[in-house]
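Is EPU placement plausible here? Inputs below.
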Amino acid sequence: MINLKDYNTFGVEALAEKVLIMNKQEDIFQFVEKHNGNKEFFLIVGGGSNILFTSNVRGTVLLNRLMGIEIIESDAQWVTVKYESGVLWDDLVLFAVQNGFWGIENLSIIPGTCGAAPVQNIGAYGQEIKDVITGVEYIDMQEGNSRYLNNLECSFGYRDSIFKRALFNRAFITSITLRLAKQAEPCLKYPSLREITVPGKTYSVSDIRNFVIQIRESKLPDFKKLGNAGSFFKNPELQEAHFYELKQHNEKIPGYKLEDGLIRVPAAWFIEESGFKNTIFGNVGTYKKHPLIIVNRGGASGLEILEFSQKIQKAVFEAFGIILSPEVNII
Ligand code: EPU
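Reply from A.M.:
I modeled the complex. Tokens:
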């Protein structure tokens, strides 16, 4: 049995029967051929930064370590880059920024691998990977063959994609391809970025990366010091009627209208209002600077974290009638 503590950013203990490192596509095909005829259970893990282990894994953990970056196409305006899925997401961002490629700088220092990025359509400070990704290559673990999905076929949504649904743990993503801009395309509309930039001023892509790093480091805990998986819940999307009904009771409730007419509200606000600001519950708690982040204060088990998250869900539901859905994959 192998302890998965070092393979998840919550830093919780869980055992797996086996851990296999996948360094190249051939390793994955071999695994499928050898072990999967008898439907052995497996779990694909990248950086382990969006996963909560609440029990042991009866089977094999496949660690994605496929490495490589390749420029596929380049003209005066655009560049298409293919990244193997085991590359750390932030190494990808750094590569893009150092080369002056625009489109993912606001996604700086998000933990995890490139392969995990499309699974939950990572997003931050006004950018989302769905806006730059052209396609995803994966190995179908049931069929044992390589497949490709273009952007549309990935069914991206807010923190969502086909890889979180029909293809969850069935698609071993092997590479992602991004189309990035060579001309400046700053995206500074997000409130915290607006606060630290001067309107009309010209910024380089690396200036923006540095701003994002500054914001993230001031608000989000470093999982190496305090176990966490970023936002634990998604920001809920409410029907307009529900939102305005809540507003009647408390006009301070923030929210912004989406293209489809729904109103996205910040889960952090509701969690705070429900009494969970900097709350401690045994070895678990909400992060002192951001209540949407559940932290392992040391020695917490996955079940304790799950139990605490359920307390939050219950309190928010009782106070506001809002259902919080986990963003983290609970295993
Ligand atoms: N807020 C509070 N109290 C707080 C902090 C925030 O009430 O202590 C409310 C405020 O109304 C604030 C709003 O929450 O305006 C939004 O806060 P923030 O800008 O920190 O963003 P978020 O909605 O909590 C989302 C993503 C983050 C991403 C940031 C920045 C989700 C689930 N989370 O958080 O992504 O970094 O925006 O774009 O959409 C992640 O997915 O793991 C993650 C960290």
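Short version: The mean pLDDT is 96.
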